[in-house]
Amino acid sequence: MTRVACVGTGLVGSAWSVVFAKAGCEVAMFDAAGGAAEDRSRELIGQTLRLLADTGELDRTPEAIQASIRYVGTLEEALDGVSHVQESAKEDPGVKRQLFETLGRLAPRDAVLASSTSAIKGSEFLTFETADRALVAHPVNPPSLIPLVELCGTPRTAPETIERTHAFMTALGMAPVVLRKEIDGFLLNRLQYTLVAEALHLVGEGYCSAADIDRVMTQGLALRWATIGPFEVAHLNSPHGFRGFVDHLGGMMRKMGADARTDYDWPDSLASDIHAELLSVVPEARFSERQAWRDANIAATRAMQRAAGDRFAESTLSKRRGNDDEPAV
Ligand SMILES: NC(=O)c1ccc[n+]([C@@H]2O[C@H](COP(=O)([O-])OP(=O)(O)OC[C@H]3O[C@@H](n4cnc5c(N)ncnc54)[C@H](O)[C@@H]3O)[C@@H](O)[C@H]2O)c1
Question: What's this model's pTM, rounded to 2 decimal places?
Answer without folding.
Answer: 0.93
